[in-house]
Amino acid sequence: MVLAKEGQVDGQITSSQPACLSLPEQAIVMANWKAIDLSLLKAWLPRDTSLEGQCSGRLSGNWSRAGPFETQGEMKISQGTVRWKSEEIILSSTIQTANFDWSWRHDGLRGKISLVLADYGDIKGKFQLPLNARLHVSIQKTGLLEVSVQAQIQENGLLATLFPSLILESR
Predict the structure, then answer these.
(1) pLDDT of residue 133
(2) To bridge 121 with a disulfide, which of 3, 20, 102, 153 should be the other Cys (CB 3.0-4.6 Å)?
(3) Tens digit of pLDDT for each residue in 126-159?
(4) Phi, psi dihedrals of residue 168, rounded to the nearest 5°
(5) Which of 33, 109, 116 shows the shortest CA–CA distance to 79?
(6) Where are the alpha helices (DSSP H) in the chain?
(7) pLDDT of 55
(8) What is the DSSP letter of 21?
(9) ∠36-39-41 over CA atoms, to 5°?
(10) Which has the closest alpha carbon to 98: 154, 40, 157, 57?
(11) Which residues in the chain come in under a pLDDT of 50?
(12) Looking at residue 63, what is its pLDDT?
């Protein structure tokens, strides 16, 4: 499928069951996308945040209507822009690269995130969230929750922009 601007999505669902108009009980799912407009993600972003640019990625896995599914994939952004706007402040930076890799299996969603901003440095993180890998996603109350973030930030006027009165008082 080719999208209105430039993007392209290719996908495949394979099942050993006979073809019909409903979803199969079990299937193997594969999808690839490239040059997808990041503005399509606006609905999932905080209200004052916007993304421009394009992403590419892949997804593969096993799907089961009755039981847990397994999926893994990755998404990459290169040369995008992120903007955050409040009533008084507008922050903007070029995204040199952003990578998101994930694996979602029985007991949880695990992943790694890497973001390099041209003006402000880089952020790396990994996470494990106790989300059941089922069609009705729910949080496991006894599951493992783990998040770690490492950042190397270049200030470049960011503190003065975010906290102008605090910076003036410190001088």
Answers:
(1) 87
(2) 153
(3) 999 999 888 788 888 888 899 999 999 887 766 6
(4) -65, -40
(5) 116
(6) 158-162, 164-170
(7) 93
(8) S
(9) 85
(10) 57
(11) none
(12) 85
pTM of the model: 0.78
The residue length of the chain stands at 171
Closest CA to 150 of 118, 122, 127: 122
Q: Considering just the CA atoms, what is the radius of gyration of the chain in Å? A: 20
116: closest CA among 101, 99, 96? 96
Query: Percent helix, strand and coil across the chain, each rounded to 5?
Result: 10, 55, 35
What is the token pair recorded at 18? 């006979």
68 token code pair: 């847990």
